[in-house]
Design a protein that fits this description.
- By secondary structure, this protein is mainly alpha-helical.
- The chain has one domain.
- Helix 1 runs parallel beside helix 4, helix 2 packs across helix 3 and helix 3 runs antiparallel to helix 4.
């Protein structure tokens, strides 16, 4: 389930995020994504809940469209 939510988040944002980065500027979107990624990693290290972990991996998948 954890791996599936990662790829689900990635697929959902691939439809609209690259176009938004082209319009708003890739540098701003990239650095915002890196900041969110840092916060998500911190949350992942702190959490003990399986449900929260699933949600964080979904968010990681969404941010992956920014990093790649």
């Amino acid at each position: 389930m954890i791996g599936a939510t990662f790829f689900l988040g990635w697929c959902v944002t691939l439809l609209w995020l690259p176009g938004m980065a082209d319009k708003k500027g890739r540098r701003k979107i990239f650095w915002l994504g890196m900041l969110i990624d840092l916060l998500l990693y911190t949350g992942l290290m702190i959490t003990t809940s399986y449900g929260v972990m699933i949600f964080l991996y979904l968010c990681f998948g969404m941010i992956c469209a920014i990093r790649v």
